[in-house]
Write a structure and sequence with these properties.
Blueprint: H1 6-9, H2 11-22, E1 30-32, E2 40-41, E3 47-56, H3 68-85, E4 89-99, H4 105-122, E5 125-133, E6 138-147, E7 162-166, H5 171-180, H6 187-198, H7 204-213, E8 217-220, H8 225-236, E9 239-243, H9 251-257, H10 261-267, E10 274-278, H11 280-290, E11 294-301, E12 308-311
Parallel strand pairs: 4-5, 9-12
Antiparallel strand pairs: 1-2, 3-6, 4-6, 7-10, 7-11, 8-10, 9-11
Helix pairs in contact: 2-4, 3-4, 3-7, 5-6, 6-9, 7-11
Length: 332
């Protein structure tokens, strides 16, 4: 059976195909979706949030081990996570897609199926975007969200607060290693770690619980615990200490990576868990409300250098090397 290519369908045929797929994700407040020069919807009273991110083939994903459906899921997930990190509620998404003309239409269909799957779970409507030809697949998504209350920011951390994270750390980086064939593990372990990389789950409801509980500082872990905590320290003009033995590492990751698990937990990135700071009693209240693992991994300290130190069980400073993902770093 002949697999139709994007070049056969054409730009406007592809847009029509996508429009039919996403029509079911529309919300009651939507006035205009795909088909006009811009999408339009009735805005609620309150604060509006906007974020955008881009995934590039060969940089952020590899079609050799990342299924199209999972690429779609993750592309939308990373943007929803940005809205979540500020305590917001994701509402609308705009999707810009560039791809080679010989791409199968079925592949595009699968990618949008992944996006629509996560969109339905988080109440997001895909309302527009753009398509273009390119030598490789490039997927750029913008998400608009709302907040009816106080925002979580990076700039409100204070000395004496504890540093806490939701969930487990390093699973995404560990999953990438499994998918690439760098490590070989039993099928059940491989499945857990691969899902951690391919299908992250943004912490939308959890972040809103943080807001209601009185937490004011948060960031999602996209570039690694150390790198993202550094951003909080710089914005808040404080320092931080991380306790190596407190890192929440899933047993599946320890089976796959052993002693190297700590490095992945510190610097692996793309976990999309919440990293937040608060007083100890407040964190205990949050832990009781969330129903997912919440781990205190360090503390905020006074510092003029916004430095983040990692301390081992013996109280010694650990040299951890690179802090996390940097798109323009030399010799990555």
């Amino acid at each position: 059976m002949h697999a139709m290519k994007v070049r056969e369908l054409g730009e406007f045929g592809l847009i029509d195909h996508i429009a039919r797929m996403v029509r079911g994700s529309h919300k009651p407040d939507l006035i205009l979706g795909i088909g006009d020069d811009a999408a339009a919807w009735h805005a609620n009273a309150g604060v509006e949030l906007a974020t955008t991110d881009i995934l590039v083939e060969g940089v952020h994903f590899n079609l050799g081990y990342a299924p199209w459906e999972d690429i779609g899921w993750k592309a939308l997930a990373v943007n929803i996570s940005d809205i979540a990190a500020m305590g917001g509620n994701p509402e609308y998404a705009l999707v810009s897609l560039a791809l080679p003309p010989d791409t199968d239409v079925q592949s595009v269909t699968e990618m949008y199926s992944g996006m629509l799957e996560i969109a339905s779970q988080y109440g997001v409507a895909i309302v527009g975007g753009n398509v273009s030809s390119a030598p490789q697949v490039v997927l750029s998504i913008s998400v608009i969200g709302t907040s009816m209350g106080t925002l979580l920011t990076r700039s409100a951390a204070a000395p004496g607060e504890m540093v806490a994270v939701t969930g487990w750390l390093g699973g995404s980086a560990a999953g990438l290693g499994v998918l690439k064939g760098d490590v070989h593990v039993p099928a059940d372990v491989a499945r857990i770690l691969s899902v951690a990389h391919l299908r992250p789950r943004p912490r939308v409801a959890e972040a809103q619980t943080l807001v209601r509980s009185g937490v004011r500082t948060s960031i999602d872990i996209s570039d690694g615990l150390l790198s993202d905590l550094q951003r909080i320290c710089e914005a808040s003009r404080v320092g931080a200490t991380i306790w190596l033995e407190r890192l929440p590492i899933h047993e599946s990751m320890e089976k796959a990576y052993g002693a190297d698990s700590a490095r992945l937990a510190l610097s692996g990135g793309e976990d999309y868990e919440l990293l937040f700071t608060a007083q100890t009693d407040l964190i205990e209240d949050v832990r009781a409300d969330l129903g997912i693992p919440v781990t205190v991994v360090g503390e905020i300290v006074s510092s003029d250098k916004a430095a983040v130190e990692v301390i081992d069980a013996g109280g010694h400073v650990v040299d951890v090397g690179t802090a996390g993902w940097d798109h323009f770093a030399i010799d990555k």
